[in-house]
Design a protein that fits this description.
The chain is α/β, with parallel strands linked by helices and about 170 residues long. The protein has four helices and five strands.
Length: about 170
């Protein structure tokens, strides 16, 4: 008489292994699709040159601020910062309703950006500055987030100020 218990036990073990393998395969597929969805669903933010209406801020400081803002936006979950967008031929004038010029929006849409980050630095006194920033939706031209932060006009204080500013802005989108 054949040993049916051994055959049955091997069949149970085989079925269990197949189930574990299929579960692992499905889990891996779902994990990869979630990661790729997070990667491909990131919002693209064009970071403009820092505006200094007073003319008192050094060009190196403005370049540093733009770089720090790009880092802060890019390191935020769900966002990508782009700072090589050139707005040389376009004017960044805001009208009374807070809309951005249609020429700028058209240019940024061609670059496939979702938002524009416009930052302004204003010296308050010899030691402190005010960083103001707005995020503008390129589809509607409306300001979707706006914030400002006061900081010492020293590189060691400006990077944390940029991080704080970006946290306020991306949390509002």
């Amino acid at each position: 008489m054949p040993n049916l218990w051994g055959v049955h036990r091997r069949q149970i073990i085989y079925n269990s292994m197949v189930k574990v393998y299929l579960f692992a395969l499905v889990f891996t597929f779902l994990s990869c699709s979630t990661m790729s969805a997070q990667f491909y669903n990131r919002k693209k933010v064009a970071i403009t040159e820092v505006v200094d209406r007073s003319g008192d801020v050094a060009n190196g400081t403005k370049v540093f601020l733009r770089s720090a803002l790009t880092d802060a936006i890019t390191n935020s979950d769900g966002y990508e910062g782009y700072d090589k967008i050139s707005f040389v031929s376009l004017e960044m004038n805001f009208d009374k309703t807070g809309n951005i010029s249609s020429g700028t929006l058209t240019y940024v849409k061609k670059q496939l950006m979702d938002y524009i980050l416009v930052t302004e630095i204003t010296p308050l006194d010899k030691r402190t500055v005010l960083l103001s920033a707005r995020i503008v939706n390129t589809s509607s031209g409306k300001i979707v987030a706006s914030s400002s932060v006061r900081a010492y006009a020293d590189i060691d204080y400006l990077r944390p100020a940029c991080n704080s500013l970006c946290c306020k802005l991306v949390g509002a989108i």
